[in-house]
């Protein structure tokens, strides 16, 4: 969350300067325009539902932990037939944040200490400046990771078209999309 990135369609700035000890609940329910922007940003045919339920809580001395779930109903194009495929996403969201001037965040980098990375362990904390964190953008990152990059309709196979000049269903649909006959 460092720097100025492109704003998320579901951006939600959580004020973390004075978080209650038990944390602050945040619910993000995307409206039609936000769902359309999410679909375009992630190469989907449509996003029918998008909801993130998050808890923004204090972590260690001056850090912030964001946890929760993002759920969505999406429609993608099959990579073989281009037919629409509906999918339901239900993904856990987890993020740790430290102020950019935190000693805890610099300890391993500037102190000459070793940094041990565990591929299955939690991600290292991200830094933030000021007193807000865009928890909506964090939830969108987990949404994006949950999308199947190669959705395939059940039973769809990639026909290479080597059967005596017969066009595959994929080739016909691709031509129709491109406006070629």
Number of strands: 7
Q: Hey, roughly how much beta strand do the residues contain? A: 25-35%
Shape, per Cα inertia axes: elongated
Continuous helix count: 4
| Uncertain segments | 108-113
Mean pLDDT value: 84
Condensed summary:
The chain is of the alpha+beta class and 181 residues long. Helices cover 22% and strands 33% of the residues.
Structure explained in plain terms:
With 181 residues, the protein is α+β, with helices and mostly antiparallel strands. The protein has four helices and seven strands. The protein has helices spanning 32-41, 103-110, 135-146, 169-178, and strands at 13-15, 24-29, 46-59, 63-77, 84-99, 126-128, 132-134. The chain has a five-stranded mixed sheet.
Strand and helix map with partners:
Blueprint: E1 13-15, E2 24-29, H1 32-41, E3 46-59, E4 63-77, E5 84-99, H2 103-110, E6 126-128, E7 132-134, H3 135-146, H4 169-178
Parallel strand pairs: 5-6
Antiparallel strand pairs: 1-7, 2-3, 3-4, 4-5
Keywords summarizing the entry:
alpha+beta; two-stranded antiparallel ribbon; 5-stranded mixed β-sheet; 181 residues; 33% strand
């Amino acid at each position: 969350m460092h720097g100025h990135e492109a704003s998320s369609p579901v951006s939600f700035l959580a004020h973390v300067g004075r978080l209650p000890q038990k944390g602050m609940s945040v619910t993000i329910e995307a409206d039609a325009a936000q769902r359309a922007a999410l679909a375009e940003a992630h190469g989907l045919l449509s996003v029918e539902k998008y909801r993130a339920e998050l808890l923004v809580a204090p972590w260690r001395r001056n850090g912030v932990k964001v946890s929760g779930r993002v759920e969505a109903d999406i429609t993608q194009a099959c990579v073989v037939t281009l037919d629409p495929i509906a999918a339901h996403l239900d993904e856990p969201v987890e993020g740790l944040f430290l102020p950019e001037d935190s000693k805890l965040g610099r300890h391993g980098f500037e102190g000459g200490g070793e940094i041990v990375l565990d591929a299955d362990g939690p991600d290292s904390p991200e830094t933030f400046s000021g007193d807000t964190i865009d928890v909506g953008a964090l939830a969108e990152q987990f949404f994006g990771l949950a999308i199947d990059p190669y959705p395939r309709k059940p039973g769809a196979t990639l026909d290479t078209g080597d059967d005596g000049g017969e066009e595959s269903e994929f080739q016909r649909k691709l031509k129709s999309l491109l406006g070629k006959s």
